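Researcher: Next sequence.
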Amino acid sequence: MKRTFPLNTIFAFGWVMALVIAPSPAEAWQTTTSGIAAPELPGPSQSAAPPIDAAATQANGGVAAQGVVQGANQAGQEITLDQALSLARTNEPAFAAAVAASKTAQLDRSIARAALLPSVVYHNQYLYTQPNGQTGSIGSQPAPRFIANNTVHEYISQGVVTETIGLAQYTALARAGAAAAIASAEMEISRRGLTSTVIGLFYNSTAAQERIVIQQRATNEAADFEKQTEQRETAREVAHADVIKAQLTLQQRQRDLGDAQLQAQKARLDLGVLLFPDPRSPYSVTLPAATPLPERAVVETQAAANNPELKSALATLRAKDLDITTARAAYLPDLVLNYSYGIDAPQFARNGPDGVRNLGYSASATLDIPVWDWFATQHKIKQTHILRDAAKVALTSTQRTLIAQLDEFYGEASLAHDQLASLELSVQTARESLRLTRMRYSAGEATVLEVVDAQNSLTSAELAHQDGTIRYQLALANLQLLTGTI
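Model: Next structure:
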């Protein structure tokens, strides 16, 4: 006889068979009490975000998939640190102004050197003077009314050589050389300042990208744990409070991922302003190879020899000493030598109408001896002494600052380098702790709070390791800037 079953009985039977056939939550996570190890969690050293399964994507509202798409859209060309520095030097207006100031200072030195050499001009002039009606001494030429000129029509076409000899001229050349050294040091200071800015933005952008990877892994982990709690609640193994706690953790991870993506976008724009005409241009940064920490003695030698602040202070002091010499030169006379050769005649011709040769030369030597200027020169000398004393104070301050920065930067780099191994060990320990805690939770031996705490510990350890790596790179870069090796 053919039997029929009620519809609700069929649904109940199907639900029971599904529970029997489907793998248990413990089997899904491979954390049974038979000793099967849980899957290894991804570490922060991975270069790309871990794959996202459909369940995790659905659980976190598509944030993970959005991050992957956004990363693909922003990949663009790869920019190394050297390329970033080169592009920034081309686009930064402050550095361009420093370069222009250095080049003009070099030209000022060439101009001052040229002032020591004789100057040559070809002088041409025509003079007309109203005649007074009287006949002059030369033929029938009328005499001029004004005695300042020689004749009514006077033509001057001469080559004139002039040379000025004095202490001020030689001091001006030395002063221009000191100014060129100052401008060169200031350009180097500007270059290193721009380099420091680019390095900071470069590593900040790199750190922001790595934080996305870490937060993406934490979000996937939270989504997977939220799925596990729901499965265990369905199997009547845990209370609904575990699901709520897992959901709250997932929501927080999603917010942290969104913040990390926003910070990465800001970092990219800040660096893009220095690199591209359009800061929204897609690009990705590539970290340079890690370099070991140099020896302290080598750092001290390079810092003393290549520090631009110290060079600028020394050149400034030398310039102030030369200003004193220039001010004292006002007590001494200047010798001016002049030689002229050409035509100074009533006709613009080599020979006059009466056969007189119009070509000739003249020479003069002028020596003006200062006698009295109402103490103006003495006061100028006092002014230069005051400025020279201020330059000495600036030099000693620069030396003290260099010593302090050397100790500070080297200590920072040394400590950051020593902490890298500890931070890496913390990440490995936190990852193993999370794996064991998930196993204990699957076996019913751990609470949901322990799992959440282990998840937070792993995320914090990964972020700390990533921050420690960037800290060491920045400290090493500051040390290299101080020594002039970058």
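Model: The beta strands are 77-79, 119-128, 131-135, 142-144, 153-165, 283-285, 334-345, 359-368. Residues 1-73 have pLDDT under 50 and may be disordered.
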